[in-house]
Structures are given as C-alpha cells and as structure tokens.
Specification:
disordered C terminus, 16 helices, 19 strands, alpha/beta, 39% helix, four-stranded antiparallel β-sheet, Aspartate Aminotransferase, domain 2, 3 domains, Arc Repressor Mutant, subunit A, Aspartate Aminotransferase, domain 1
Length: 527
C-alpha cells in the first residue's frame, strides 16, 4: 500500500479532512502521485493513518470534486490523468523529472502552525513607501553616528584578540556588568551572573518559551499584544489565551478568571509600554499581577522593550523590581534606543532558569557577536547611551505631539486613538469603514502601517491599526496623517462625516478622556 507520512494537527481549527485533502493535493501537484496512480481504499488509508474512514472519504470526495482524482465504482480512486483545475498553483521550478519535492506534507506540526499575521505585507504591486508608519523603527536622523563609530573602533583596537576567541553563551562579561549597573535605575538589583546577553528581546522570548513550554501548554498574553511573542509561543505548540488591556494595562480581574479556569504555564506582558497601545500598567495592577502569579505558580515574562522612552521623568520601575520570589523573567533590548539591526538584548532571570534558557538558545545560535557587545559596553560606561536616550525622549515627545495634532485635525468622527506617555507609536481605532479597502488604498498612496490583526493571534482587531512616529519629522507626520485621513474619509458614510466637535461629544458620552482631540479608552481590549 502507498506509504503516506501524513500527520494531522488536531490543534488547528481546520478540519482533519481538509488537512488531508491539502496534503494529497500537494503530492498530486508536485508530481509525486503520478496520473493514473491508484490510491488506497478509504478503509485501508484510514487504518494506516489512524483516522476515521469518513475523514478519508471526505478528503477523497473533495479532490474528486475539483478534478484532482477520479473514482470508478468497483475499481477504486485514481489520480486524474489530467488536472482540470487550471487555477491550481504549479511548482515554479519543477525538477527535470517533472516532479518537485512535496515539502508541505513533511513539515513538523509546529511548523505547519507558523504563519505571518495577516496584514504584515503590503499588497502586491504597491508603489514605493512615502510615509512609513510601521513599528519597530527608530529616529535614524538622530543616531549618534560618531560616538558609535568610535566605540566600535576602540573595541576592535583594544579588545580584538580577546573578542576573537570569545564564545561565552552568557555574553561578554564587561557588557553584563554594565547591564547590571544600568538596570539599577529601573529598580532591578542583579549581579552579572543573573544576566545573559541575547540577540534582541525576541531571542529572550524564544529562549524562555523553549525552556518552559511543552506542546499543549497554555500561555496567557495581552490582546492586543506583540505578534513576535505569539509566533514564538506558537512555534512551541502552545495554546494561547488572550487577556484584554485598558488604560492601566493588562486587566488583572480578567486574568484571575483565566487562572481559575485553566492551568497556565507562562504569562507574557509588556507593563512599561503595552504593545501596541502604549498603556502603562498601574502600580496596583502590578501588585495584583504578581500576587495572582504567585498564587497560581505562573512565571511572568516581562518584555521591557520600550521602557526607557518615557517623555517625562525617569523610566518607570520595572515589574522585576517588585519580584521577591524570582518568578519574573525580565527581557530588554537596546534596539529601540539605538537601532534594530544592532541585535543586542538581555535577559535577567533566576539562575536555574537562565542556564536552561542559554542552553535553549545554544541549540540554534551559540552566542551573540562579540564586537557589538564590546562597543555597547563602552557606550554604556561612557554615558553616551544615556545622553542619546535623553535626546530621543525629547524628539519622540515632539513627534508624538505632531501626530496627535494631525489626527485631531484631519481624522473623521468616530476615530479613536491612544495618547501614551512614552514609546514610539499610537494605537488607533477606525470608524465604520472597510479596513481592507483602507489598507489597500493607503498602500496605493504610499502609506504603510501595521494592521490591527497583526497584534491579535485570534484574527480580531480588524478595525484597528498602529502608527509609529519614530522615524518621521513632524512635517512628514502631518502630511502622512492628512493623506491617511483622506483615505479613511472616503470610506466613511456621509452621515458620519462630522467635525471635531461631534467627535468630542461622542467621547464625553462614552466617559472617556480627551487629549489633543482624540479619545483614550479601552480601544485595544479585544479588537
């Protein structure tokens, strides 16, 4: 009998017969099941795959229906002599034998579940980007170019022999010392031995996931929340459960209900600047969160990605600073205050866990590049990085004001947006429009932004979007928001096209606070 290495993924919402149908179609399209090949009887294939006979019959029927297979009473089911569905995709580079390798049937279950969030890519054929409001960017026009160049040159001149042979997976010790000293300003008391250097905060999230999660474990994360964390947890075959956020951050009352109902293995949160709404978790919420996590023995992964970009006053105290039992895993990065391609971050965790996390990252990436670590240690020790952070805070505060003013001046009634006290982007909820049309029309005008679905692992958030102001001047922000608002207005029904006074009245009826003409409410709680 034909040996098929098909394994169903029972964690996916897609029915098993559809998974089998797609797998068999892939074999046919790749030429691995040649025309005229007889397929096993439904009873035989069901027994060999551990499936119900009805499941196999449904898959066969679907493939017969689209012309991929043919069925003959009393003879069996065969691969069609000629595929009649001209619309099916064909291999772009078939092998000389006319067959390509059927990769889709060989992916591991965890790989099958990995998909980019809808809305990550611009529509095909879009013109060059004129106004890039996508997140993860920095103010490139404010980079300390000369200081960074000198730090790299000095690190190479002074330490290259030692750096050339450095392969400590925990990181360059001088940098770990500087990170421990740097974190004292956040209220975190730690030693260099409590710190590991990683390739950005994303690798810290991934290492924690691989050290703690088994297939089927439940992870709680904010919704909306950081898509990169959802991707890392999905890769470990976790079950994701979302908890809403409001102006004070993660809703601990909602979390308490989840913890009562489910056995949760890990909780992921961004308390200093909630991704993507920018909300700062209130002190009372932080204490409630720690108490709940302690009661239910759940580790907390604190992603501190944007914490230093507070517009007024010192950075807020880290959640880790309140941790007395060692259950908080603190992940940070230098990407948001310098530049993303630096790829240097850090993690602070209890030493038994830290060792396992380092071993987990060693399975794919032994150590972070040594020269950038040495240069960054010099930037921290000399105070260059601290001065740059102060400059960027002022710059981002100015750019956020420009975006808030532009939104208030141009956006149609019914639009709502956040006004966080730090970070690099705003979270915006559209009025009643077709979000797909808005996205495509904006891309046609050269406008790029992150769609709300990107931050929802369950497909919600279609009426929201995130706008970053980090890498655009105030004048460019004003022009870009004006053009985006015109795109949105074209989609709004005539009865909703009121002025700012109408939007203000709506905000007051809802009991929300107004800032710069926009409303700050729980706009990102559950999309």
């Amino acid at each position: 009998m034909l040996d098929l290495p098909f394994r169903p993924d029972r964690s996916r919402p897609e029915p098993i017969f559809r998974q089998l149908e797609g797998y068999l179609r892939g074999l046919v399209e790749a030429g691995r099941l040649a025309p005229g090949t007889k397929l096993p009887a439904t009873r035989e294939l069901a027994a060999s795959l551990g499936l119900g006979r009805a499941t196999v019959s449904q898959a066969y029927d679907a493939l017969v229906g689209d012309g991929s297979l043919t069925a003959h009473v009393g003879q069996g089911t065969f691969v069609a002599a000629r595929i009649t569905t001209a619309g099916l995709p064909r291999p772009s580079h078939p092998a000389e034998s006319g067959r390509s390798f059927a990769w889709s049937g060989l992916f591991a279950l965890r790989a099958r579940a990995l998909e980019l969030p809808r809305g990550m890519a611009l529509p095909k054929g879009s013109p060059p980007i004129r106004f890039d409001f996508r997140g993860g960017q920095v103010a490139c026009d404010a980079l300390p170019v000369d200081e960074v160049r000198r730090a790299f040159a000095r690190a190479i001149a002074r330490d290259l022999p030692a750096l050339a042979g450095h392969l400590d997976p925990f990181g360059w010790l001088p940098l770990r010392r500087e990170i421990a000293r740097h974190l004292a300003s956040r209220g975190i008391e730690c030693q260099p031995g409590d710190v590991a250097v990683v390739n950005g905060a994303q690798q810290a999230v991934d290492a924690a996931a691989h050290a703690l999660l088994d297939a089927g474990d439940t992870v709680v994360m904010e919704q909306p929340g950081y898509f990169g964390a959802a991707l890392a947890f999905t890769a470990c075959q976790s079950n994701l459960v979302g908890v809403g956020v409001d102006e004070q951050g993660l809703r601990t009352a909602e979390l308490a209900r989840v913890l009562q109902a489910r056995r949760v293995k890990l909780l992921y949160t961004t308390p200093a600047s909630q991704c993507p709404t920018g909300a700062l978790m209130a002190e009372a919420r932080r204490r409630e969160l720690l108490a709940l996590a302690d009661e239910h023995q759940v580790p907390i992964l604190e992603d501190d990605y944007d914490s230093e970009l507070r517009f007024h006053g010192a950075p807020v105290r880290a959640l880790k600073a309140l941790d007395r039992s060692g259950q908080v895993i603190h992940a940070g990065t230098f990407s948001k205050v310098l530049f993303p391609t630096l790829r240097v971050g850090y993690v602070v965790a209890a030493r038994p866990l830290l060792e396992k996390m380092v071993l987990a990252r060693m399975s794919t990436d032994f150590a972070t590049a040594a020269i950038p670590q040495a240069a960054l240690a010099l930037l921290l020790r000399s105070g260059v990085l601290a001065r740059h952070v102060r400059r960027v805070r002022r710059l981002y505060a100015e750019r956020q004001r420009a975006m808030l003013d532009a939104l208030a001046h141009h956006m149609p009634a019914g639009t709502k947006w956040s006004a966080p006290q730090g970070g690099h982007m705003l979270w915006l909820r559209l009025p009643t429009v077709d979000p797909d049309r808005v996205f495509h029309d904006a891309a046609a005008e050269g406008i790029a932004y992150a769609r709300g679905e990107v931050f929802h692992f369950d497909g919600r958030g279609t009426d929201c979007l995130a706008l970053s102001f980090a890498n655009l001047t105030p004048a460019r922000i004003a022009d870009g928001v004006s053009l985006l608002a015109a795109v949105v207005r074209r989609q709004v029904t005539p009865g909703e096209r009121r002025g700012r006074s109408g939007r203000g009245a709506t905000a007051r009826r809802d009991g929300t606070r107004r800032r710069h003409g926009g409303t700050v409410d729980a706009i990102g709680t559950r999309g």
